[in-house]
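ok here's T-complex-associated testis-expressed protein 1, seq below lol
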Amino acid sequence: MGSKKGRDFIPSPITSAKDNPAADWRNMRRIIAEDPEWSLATVPLLTELVLKHIVDNFESNSKILNDLLGKHQDKVLEKISSSLPLKVTANLVDDEGYWKRCCKARWEICDVSYFGGNWKRMYFEKNLQEIIEHFVPETTDPEHLNETLALSANYVKRVEIKQLLPPVREAPKGPDFDDASDAGSDAGDEPECDHFNFGGLLKVLPNLEHLSLTYGVRDCGMNFEWQLFQFTARDCLQLAQSVAAHKYLQVFKLHRSKVDDDKVRVLISHILDHPGLIELDLSHNLIGDRGARAIGKFVNNHSKLIRLNLCDNQIRAAGAQAIAHALTKNNTVQYLNLRLNRLGDEGGQAICRSMLKNSTLKEINLGSNDMAEPTAAILSQVVMQNMTLLSIDLSCNRLGPDGGKQLQEGMEENTTITTMDLRLTECGQESEYCINQILHRNQEAEREARIKEMELKAPPQKKIAEPQAAHRYKPRITHA
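and the structure came out like this:
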């Protein structure tokens, strides 16, 4: 047995109790706390107690945040509630972490990239969207909306409204009410009900750049009525005046709202001289030739329009000719969508002839327009001469084998078009294959040109000199 020196010596309880009675575990009381995290050994720092008090009373004394040190501000912003009123946090808190918590707590899907990567902007825009989409004219108290607008003015750049509710009208009472209401719904002759007025909204949003509206009701179910989907004449006039007055608006979308020729003419007459509009989307409406002529006048004017979307309307040959005439004089429009209209060969040929003179159009969609071989013949000349066009959609048009061959002959002379949609055109497998090979060749040429451009723009890199030995070891040769 070795000596006890160098070993841990544990004194007996009796010996230790004589020197220190509190050290005897047999005489100590066991404390069981109700809070499992409570510990007698740890006492919170005074700083932590003060920060906890600030967090608990932040709503009543929020201005103290600016007087705190940066590290203390971060701790407070991490712990304050995400359900605080906007009047407290709107102009005080800029921390993205806090607004991210607010968005995550309120919405399941949060794609912040759609809002420029800014969580605060996302919260204010989605919050304002929900208020407007559930606003019932003549019923909802506007006080909450006005208060929110005042707080949101500096942070909202996009307003995207997917439904607008009409005023609530009392149903007429009578013995034959059911029969009369059914007949009226089928005919669509209910009295007009004006929707939300955007005049006051656009006036207080100076940074607004994007406005997208749909006059209709989502998920109405068994409560369907035609008046829920009416875009009235007064709605049109108020909206046109509001958009015309907002000079910084860049994108305006009004789709799925039953906009007919008369309403689009009113709308265009007000925004004819708009200085900042670069995108106009009137897709999925009832626009015919008269409305297309008004749009052509807008394109032909001193507008800065870059994108024009007229998909799924009722534009025929006359309307297409008006738009084509405007394209021959326009030098700004780069993207044109005329899909799902009724152009026919006459309208399709007019649009194609305009591209022989137009030098700015990059993408055009002419799908589902009842076009055939005559249009393909003109289009073959376009692809041979036009060096600006990059993408063409001709899907769901019966171009036929002859039309496919003509397009193939034209594409053999083309070096710029990289995308051409020929699905359901019946132009023949051989022509489709040859055209796809040409498109692939153009795509590779574009990729190589882009790489060379990036290399030219890149700053020159310094060449690193290879290290050289200052002295070389030479073995000494000794002679015997």
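fwiw Residues 1-7, 176-190 have pLDDT under 50 and may be disordered. kinda neat tbh
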